[in-house]
Specification:
MetI-like fold, single chain, mainly alpha, globular
């Protein structure tokens, strides 16, 4: 068992889930309640990682984070080292790749909140922010938890995107999925099987938790 890779994956997934919580709450709220005609464009961009091959997304992220890109040059000037093939690049790539897994369950939960409650809160003089904090959030906690769990689990199992952006540097960018791939390449099937069984048990436990929380089969989208 590659405990170093496992710990790195858990640390990555925790950081990504926390970042996605901050990003997804306002984004999901806007997607749910905005009346903008071009909202479908943002919805399509958010959902793109669900259908885009991970290697394609990883390739373009690698170009965006590379040393020749504006972001890469800025990062090098600030930190003194390139952004690509670092743990930080894994965080950036994972945030993009797991974004729909956080946004969609939260947006679905927001959409289920009775609109008359918002109207009542506004009538009583509450601001939009107070209504969101005192009405929308408490009634949507189920979807928020599901979004957090799914984004964490999805990040744990990433392979193509993190391999493209971070490579395979032990202790730096080698995640648990890449570790399994390395064991298979080296014909070390016993070690690969031990790690794969752990991920299988983890994934099954996540699904059990999500469906038990929602109490409605097949309602925890997106799962693809």
């Amino acid at each position: 068992m590659d405990w170093q890779a496992l710990w790195l994956s858990v640390r990555l997934a925790t950081i990504v889930a926390a970042i996605l919580l901050v990003i997804s709450l306002p984004l999901a709220h806007w997607l749910t309640y905005s009346q903008r005609r071009w909202k479908f464009l943002i919805e399509s961009i958010v959902s793109l990682p669900l259908v885009l091959p991970p290697t394609v997304l990883g390739f373009y992220l690698l170009l965006a984070l590379g040393s020749q890109s504006p972001i890469g040059r800025w990062w090098t000037s600030v930190t003194g080292h390139p952004l690509a093939f670092t743990f930080e690049s894994l965080v950036v790539a994972s945030v993009f790749y797991s974004l729909p897994f956080a946004v969609q369950p939260i947006a679905a939960a927001f959409a289920q909140v009775d609109g008359t409650l918002h109207e009542a809160s506004s009538t009583l003089g509450a601001s939009a922010l107070r209504t969101f904090a005192r009405v929308t959030l408490p009634l949507s906690i189920e979807g928020i938890v599901v979004g957090l769990v799914l984004s964490f689990a999805h990040t744990i199992g990433e392979f193509g995107v993190v391999l493209m952006v971070g490579g395979n540097l032990p202790g730096v960018t080698r995640t648990v999925s890449i570790s399994i791939y390395e064991h298979v390449q080296a014909l070390e099937y016993r070690q690969a099987n031990a790690t794969a069984l752990l991920l299988l048990a983890f994934s099954f436990t996540v699904l059990l938790s999500v469906y038990a929380l929602r109490r409605r089969p097949w309602a925890a989208a997106p799962l693809a």
